[in-house]
């Protein structure tokens, strides 16, 4: 299974997802794409197999991923303080991959029906759902 993790800003959510997925699915190929170099570096330090940075990397890596994971902002143009471009969001949204999005309620986006759970619980749920796809 090829898992693409996309994050921006400091890469904290992507780092945490990478760590948990590496522990739970050690055989999975985990690719990290950051909207900036700091986010990419954080995910690589957490155990991603490979990493790249920027809009074109998102566009290319979305083409053949089985699963794309990250905060919900990766499908919202101008999210993460403008780091997510319209092309990035469209690439994630139109990819053939299954998407597992962390419902972080920031950037003026509120997800109706989503509980305001602690980030740790959201990450655990995301990893559980991705692991179910592997089996």
What share of residues is helical? 40-55%
Going across the major beta sheet, what is the strand order? 3-2-1-4-5
Mean pLDDT: 94
Count of helical regions: 6
The CA-CA distance between the termini, in Å, is: 10 Å
**Main pleated-sheet profile:** 5 strands, parallel
- Note the run of SSEs as H and E: EHEHEHEHHEH
Proportion of strand residues: 15-25%
Q: Are there runs of 5+ residues with pLDDT below 50, and where?
A: none
Shape: globular
> What's the gyration radius in Å?
13 Å
Number of strands: 5
What structural class do you assign from the helix and strand content?
alpha/beta
Task: Write up what this structure looks like.
The chain is α/β, with parallel strands linked by helices. Helices cover 44% and strands 19% of the residues. It is globular, with a radius of gyration of 13 Å. The protein starts with a strand and ends with a helix.
Give me some keywords for this one.
135 residues; alpha/beta
Quickly describe the structure.
By secondary structure, the chain is an alpha/beta fold. It has helices at 12-24, 37-45, 55-62, 79-82, 86-94, 119-134, and strands at residues 2-7, 29-34, 50-53, 67-71, 98-102.
